[in-house]
Protein: Alpha/beta hydrolase
Organism: Nitratireductor aestuarii
Amino acid sequence: MSGAAVKYYLEVEPDVRIAVTLDDFTDPWTTPETVLMLHGNSESAAAWFAWVPLFARRYRIIRPDMRGFGNSTPMREDYRWSLARLVADLVAVCRRQEAACVHVVAAKISCQIALKFAIDHPDMVRSLTLVGPPPPVRELATRVPSLDLVRQHGVEAWARANMAERLGASMPPEAVEWWTRFMGRTPVSTQLGFMQHLAIFDIEAELGSVTQPTLVLAPEQSLDEVAAWQHNIPASRLVGVPGNSYHVAASHAEFCAAQTIRFIEEVS
């Protein structure tokens, strides 16, 4: 429905619901393309608040809360996370909205989910934009101090431990506090289980199978590290984001959104 922001739940399996927000402020006589926005770890669809006003007049936007996060059903600590299941959730969300082919914009760890989605369902993905992606090889979480911190003091304490470093010097203290509290709302059980299954995001061997045009937006200080694997994606380009933030989708939202819109218009 044009001219509205709609929130709803989609049951993807028994007792598991995905919260979805649909933003569409395009002209009602047009047929806009669809952009699927995927948030990072310990976040929700609300992480895209600075992006939505820049996109919603041009595109229909689908913003799901990943299972376990935001308003979606929390996951138990012993839940066995898998890329296949997370991709299946995206397929279900897109089919519910009758979105046959989407531009995917992903931040942080969801970049790997987006890549796997594009590899396994190439006809459903028109383009990829990866914002602040981590390396495509993830070691199984062995950081006992981090897990203990979450278990004993909650997700907010874990987020607070290095939020200023994640967001960089350009973010004011009020923003750092907001993002800390925002990420801190993640259920402890979800976060503990998710952190212990990071190995499922190892997709380095499959990067050559990505056929879609791909834009990679990475912090300037990480360009060499990102370029080491980004060049394996055939139709990809790498753009540096200025500053010293690692969560550039948050700290440099307008810059990243402008680059993304320009890229989508080009490939469309």
Residues 253-267 form the longest helix (15 residues). The radius of gyration is 17 Å. Strands lie at 4-13, 16-24, 34-38, 60-64, 102-107, 125-131, 214-219, 236-241.
